Amino acid sequence: MGSLKKNGGVSGAILSRIATNDQHGENSEYFDGWKSYDKDPFHFSRNPHGVIQMGLAENQLCLDLIKNWIKENPKASICTAEGVHQFSDIANFQDYHGLKEFREAIVKFMGKARGGRVTFDPERVVMSGGATGANETIMFCLADPGDVFLVPSPYYAAFDRDLRWRTGVETIPVHCYSSNNFKLTVEAVEWAYNKAQESNKKVKGLILTNPSNPLGTMLDKDTLENLVRFVTRNNIHLVVDEIYAATVFAGETFVSVAEVVNNADSSEVNVDLIHIVYSLSKDMGLPGFRVGIVYSYNDSVVSCARKMSSFGLVSSQTQLMLASMLSDDRFVENFLIESSRRLGIRHGVFTLGLKKTGITCLTSSAGLFVWMDLRHLLRDRNSFESEIELWRIIINKVKLNVSPGSSFHCTEPGWFRVCFANMDDDTLHVALQRIQDFVSKNNNKIVEKTSDSDQIIQNNNAKKQKWRQGNLRLSFRRLYEDGLSSPGIMSPHSPLLKA
Ligand SMILES: Cc1ncc(COP(=O)(O)O)c(C=O)c1O
Question: CA distances (Å), 225 to each of 190, 211, 232, in order?
Fold first, then answer.
């Protein structure tokens, strides 16, 4: 038997430039957290000391409502006795426009997810494989290799892959800072735009996530209107990824760019430049269904994106079931209210638990995560190396897989994104307990020293805070010095896909 000749491997010259470049991001050190989790995943009874996954922006809080609906509506699935009569039609359906009833139901849902203040046209709905596919498709429609999209940072880590890897599009960050709560300003966008122009870059657009991943904050109406005017003035595109539209649980009302478009003065807004990316992965907690939407106000973009959608259609079985579920008004209205109520409670429990340990987060009102401030725990407040050191301790010693701010291109070390909606209450409490235990090891020393009198404790509150931070830092330092080993197995999953 002749031997098989292996030629080249991934870096071999026989593969394409796309196949052999690193833009997919999977060789990054940020994978270590996922590897740790995969090697040693937490389970309440089977592996209670394992790593808890807090790096996954999944919404698992309302899956019971969806399961109940499926049980009560067996006709909506074609693989049931009640639904099988539609099997042949649906199994054969492959029109890239999608089922009419699906498009009608999804635009109705998109309107409701935005508080019923806007309506969408089913003829403008283009399907894709999740928002991942939608973001890539819109890049293919709007930009050529080498063209630039501006992206406010910190931003969703997988944008590096989704917007750039296969399209050849480049991104330039618009940096936002903690000094104004990471708020995006038109001035910052303008500055980045001018800088890019000065370096002879062809800027084709600006892409936002609203509500923001990883911040959980929302753009106010004025800023959004000003950004719409800005892109119109400069004749560049605005893509708004609104995948977290219905995860709002507190405070302000979410303002979709669709609202701005609907109410805009046509002399100030060129709607041909406005495009929305959406998906059911977060608002309904269905990332496995791969339901993504490109919604463009530009007819040529709709037409081109639809042709491209052949590469990433939503399965017709999924379309059929969702058409039925999403046109059930009572179910959808109850789901949206209940989902934001549960997210609000979860967020409240988690942030309060953190606060008790002296840890604060950026104030947020949406999303499936918090943006946690651990700057006071860094060995060196100005160094990203310190951030990575602290991150490795959190993974390997505290056994929580959280995501460091640098993976979101944050320019200030010490911020971490922590997901709170991908687990049950009990697991969340274990996670909080681990953080509290870790911190209280240091607090105990303070309590011993000050237990003589409550009065002394009160009088020394300021000192105590200093002590605590000092001790915490010391304790982390001890751990740094323990020498942390990086786990060795390769993850079968793409963390970026799930992030
Ligand atoms: C801002 C943003 N866009 C897109 C995606 C990808 O979503 P999907 O699962 O629908 O592809 C995510 C997932 O985390 C996200 O946070």
Answer: 14, 15, 11
Measured from the Cα of 57, ligand 1's closest atom is 14
pTM reported for the whole predicted model: 0.88
Q: What is the DSSP string of 365-410?
A: SSSSEEEEE-GGG-SSTT-HHHHHHHHHHHHHTS-EE-EEGGGGT-
Q: What spatial distance separates the first Cα and last Cα of the chain, rounded to whole Å?
A: 46
User: Residue 142 has what pLDDT?
Assistant: 98
Which residues are annotated as catalytic?
Answer: 156, 241, 243, 282
Q: Could you report the per-residue pLDDT of 363-411, keeping only the tens digit for each?
A: 999 999 999 999 999 999 999 999 999 999 999 999 999 999 999 999 9
Q: What is the pLDDT of residues 57-90, one digit of tens each?
A: 999 999 999 999 999 999 999 889 898 898 888 8
| CATH number at 17-58+368-498 | 3.90.1150.10
Domains of the chain, residue spans:
17-58+368-498, 75-328
Q: How far is the CA of 496 from the centre of ligand 1 (A)?
A: 9
Q: Which fold has domain 75-328?
A: Aspartate Aminotransferase; domain 2 (3.40.640)
Ligand 1, CB within 6 Å, residue ranges: 57, 130-132, 156, 209, 213, 241, 243, 279, 281, 287, 292, 499
